[in-house]
Amino acid sequence: MKNDIKTVMAKVFRLKVEDIPDSAAAGTLGPWTSLKHVELILHIERKFSVRFEDEMVGTLLTLEVIENALKTALAGKK
After folding, report:
1. Contact 13, 70 (CB under 8 A)
2. Virtual torsion, Cα 6, 15, 29, 74, nearest 10 deg
3. DSSP secondary structure, 35-67, as one string
4. Residue 51, phi then psi, degrees to nearest 5
5. Is the Cβ–Cβ distance between 9 and 39 less than 8 Å?
6. pTM for this structure?
7. How far apart are CA 51 and CA 30, in angstroms?
8. Local structure of 68: helix, strand or coil
9. How far apart are CA 58 and CA 61, in angstroms?
10. What's phi and psi for 20, nearest 5 deg?
């Protein structure tokens, strides 16, 4: 799943997948701006057919947190 998220990040941030570290976070990954953050979350929601609550979107600021939230969201769909 992490690689799928990185693929989305690469598309949104216009980077190569291999340039996105596992420790990627807003503030440490240059192209990850507030506007791009919203775009990233929208792309992830579309790709994985999930919906994050508005209050949660502002907390999804690292690759690890996004991955954990996505796993939880997908588990809730079963």
Report:
1. no
2. -20
3. HHHHHHHHHHHHHHT----HHHHTT--BHHHHH
4. -140, 125
5. no
6. 0.92
7. 26
8. helix
9. 7
10. -105, 110
Question: How far is residue 14 from each of residues 41, 75, 77, measured CA to CA in Å?
Answer: 15, 29, 30
Closest by alpha carbon to 2, among 69, 78, 77, 75? 69
Distance CA 53, CA 36 (A): 18
Hey, what are 17's tokens?
A: 């997948």
What is the DSSP secondary structure assignment for residue 20, as one 8-state letter?
S
Tens digits of per-residue pLDDT, 10-41? 999 999 999 999 999 999 998 999 999 999 99
pLDDT, position 78: 61
Angle at 75 (CA atoms; ends 69, 78), nearest 5 degrees: 150
Nearest Cα residue to 4 out of 30, 43, 57: 43
